[in-house]
Design goal:
Two copies of one chain form a homodimer. By secondary structure, the first copy, chain A, is of the alpha/beta class. Chain A has one domain: Acetylglutamate kinase-like (Carbamate kinase, 3-Layer(aba) Sandwich), CATH 3.40.1160.10. Chain A has eight helices and 14 strands. In chain A, β3 and β4 form a beta hairpin. In chain A, α2 crosses α3 and α5 packs parallel to α7. The first copy, chain A, is globular and about 45 Å long. Chains A and B meet through α3 and β5 of A and α3 and β5 of B.
Chain lengths: ~260, ~260
């Protein structure tokens, strides 16, 4: 079988988008990556600030945003406008030929509005389909797509979608064409064995240890959705998944996820 | 010489972006255009409303916006985020494979910050270069780029740029590869001989008649920058320029510009 070309997908979140200096370092590391690459960014804190400035109170349930119509307008502006174009223009200045996209652009990511259950999440999107052939074409003409956390339903409705999930779903879909390396980057050096100790990075985390840590409560609650997404990607054939700070992009460091056995 | 393929560039402005119904009709006409096509949109009124909601007073001089740092953030959000993704998601729903871009995306449009003269326009961009080869590639893979009125300087700075000018500069640059038809669409049926009479559309306007009308003051002042851009495009080899309402896209109607002689 012909070897697949390498593709790196980097999700950036946490404080990396909030600090000009951290963002600059992150984008430098991203620019230095060899081969095809894509970036996915959140922007939650900035959206909160703009909501506040506009007199819209952010509504959260279990750490997830409730996206009412007014909030959808703000996140579309902040994620697809302000944050996305900031990242793209800075990557262009570094010599990386970035193209900023939402899931509506080039029909990249189709989603549906999350059905109302115990909680009504409003205009939150759950992903149905990643347009992998289209993304492959954009990568092949030398572009580096930069995705914000907005998708669409194909009927004209934009939807707010978790950026960690977008990165995982893209990584899964693109394994058809690429050997995909997925990085979740934030300000910490990796998954911590002790959330209070920044030095306690778990270098390798397998699914068994993750489930144990989850039950024992030793893995920080905020990490759980990210790790669930990450292991799902690994199970679906993504070549590698790392969680760490921007420097981990250069070293493939941080926490390296493994399916069921720890490897050296 | 091999005949160049046809490309239609449509600038939409005026009230077309402010009314859901007018926008829907406009995008239907755009979707029905055969061959390669691109759209450029403004969004001035919406930006004013968001500025007001945020307590930022819009500053205008001679009908042009002064873009201070706070306003640049708002126009980036509104043009590249809200308006651009609204247009793209609606085009996708109509079956048009639209991709929303700013001038920073794929390094499409390079500009410089307008030098401070009698007026300091702030973060206003004057265009230096349209990346025609890159746009040609995007068109060739079947995408319809949808541009908002934001450019960049290649050094990480985003700039607010007149949408009429963007459309004209793109049309000029793409004449190297395409037979370019440029449409300026707004809510009126064309350039009016009598601004008070909606039926007084001038079917064909040549440069001589335009200069006369400009001196005599019979052409509405708001039309002048648009017509200056339009004639510059025609002079630079753009195949045709029309000014009219969305229906003119289907009929090549409205006001048809001509260089120096009226043709039947």
């Amino acid at each position: 079988m012909k070897q697949k070309p390498k593709l790196t997908i980097v999700k950036i979140g946490g404080k990396l988008l909030e600090s000009e200096q951290l963002l600059a370092v992150t984008l430098q590391h991203f620019t230095h990556l060899q081969g095809a690459k894509m970036l996915v960014h959140g922007g939650g804190k900035a959206a909160d600030q703009w909501c506040t400035a506009l007199g819209i109170s952010p509504i959260m349930k279990d750490g997830r945003r409730i996206t009412d119509a007014a909030t959808l307008e703000v996140v579309t502006m902040v994620y697809a406008g302000l944050e996305n174009k900031k990242v793209v223009s800075q990557l262009q200045a570094l010599g990386c030929d970035a193209i900023g996209l939402s899931g509506a652009d080039a029909n990249s990511i189709l989603a549906h509005k999350r059905p109302v259950g115990v909680i009504d999440f409003g205009f939150a999107g759950d992903i149905d389909f990643v347009n992998a052939p289209r993304l492959k074409t954009l990568l092949e003409i030398g572009l580096s797509p930069v995705f914000c956390a907005i998708t669409h339903d194909g009927q004209g409705l934009l939807l707010n979608t978790n950026a960690d999930t977008i990165a995982a779903e893209m990584a899964k879909a693109l394994t058809e064409y690429f050997e995909v390396r997925l990085f979740y980057c934030f300000e910490k050096a990796g998954v911590l064995a002790d959330p209070a100790d920044e030095q306690s990075v778990i270098p390798q985390l397998d699914q068994f240890a993750y489930q144990s840590g989850k039950k024992a409560g030793t893995i920080a609650a905020g990490m759980l959705p990210k790790l669930d997404n990450a292991f799902a990607a690994l199970n679906a054939g993504v070549y590698s998944v790392n969680i760490g700070n921007p420097a981990s992009l250069a070293t493939a460091g941080g926490t390296n996820l493994a399916l069921n056995t720890r490897t050296a």
